[in-house]
Write a structure and sequence with these properties.
This protein has about 140 residues and is mostly beta strands. The chain has a domain at about 45-130: RNA polymerase II/Efflux pump adaptor protein, barrel-sandwich hybrid domain (OB fold (Dihydrolipoamide Acetyltransferase, E2P), Beta Barrel), CATH 2.40.50.100. The chain has two helices and eight strands, in the order αβββββββαβ. The strands form two sheets. Strands 1-3-6-5 form a four-stranded antiparallel β-sheet, with no helix packed on it. A four-stranded mixed β-sheet has the order 2-7-8-4, with no helix packed on it. The longest helix is centred in the first third of the chain and has 6 residues, at about 5-10. One of its GO terms (molecular function) is structural constituent of ribosome. One of its GO terms (biological process) is translation.
Length: about 140
């Protein structure tokens, strides 16, 4: 049996087409016009690390460092948020970063290493408070 041109013409053209999906391209939503409660939240994992540069002026309550574990330690006028591991400023002042020798508490796993004589240096974050100028009235000169 030989195939002739008339036989191929009788087969519908649909059988020879490449298959494809009728899936549309997803359109990105415009959140600029919607209220803030409907906007997608910013991924916190992309904002990890130092939030200020060394020497910047920070205010009480500012988050200085976002971290997942204890990589950077709190120093003067800085507290550690135990739930999120964020370092938060306790007062207004200049933000400084320093590397210091660690002196851990006795219940810390690093305490035994330090007690054996090993020196462990870690980064610390400090907020140097503004100088308080004394305000007084001079009653008499001696």
């Amino acid at each position: 049996m030989s195939f002739t041109g008339s036989f191929l013409r009788s087969i519908p053209e649909v059988l020879f087409r490449q298959p494809f999906r009728f899936a549309g391209i997803k359109k990105k939503k415009n959140y600029a016009e919607t209220p803030s409660k409907y906007r997608p939240s910013v991924l916190v994992k992309t904002l990890r690390g130092f939030q200020f540069n060394d020497g910047d002026y920070v205010f009480k309550g500012d988050i200085l460092v976002r971290q997942l574990c204890m990589e950077i330690y709190p120093g003067e006028s800085v507290r550690l948020d135990p739930e999120t591991w964020n370092l938060v400023a306790l007062s207004n002042g200049r933000f400084t970063i320093s590397t210091e020798k660690l002196s851990p508490y006795p219940d810390s796993p690093l305490y035994d290493k330090v007690k054996e004589g090993e020196a462990i240096y870690k980064p610390f974050v400090h907020v140097i408070s503004d100088a308080i100028e004394p305000i007084y009235k001079l009653k008499r000169i001696l």
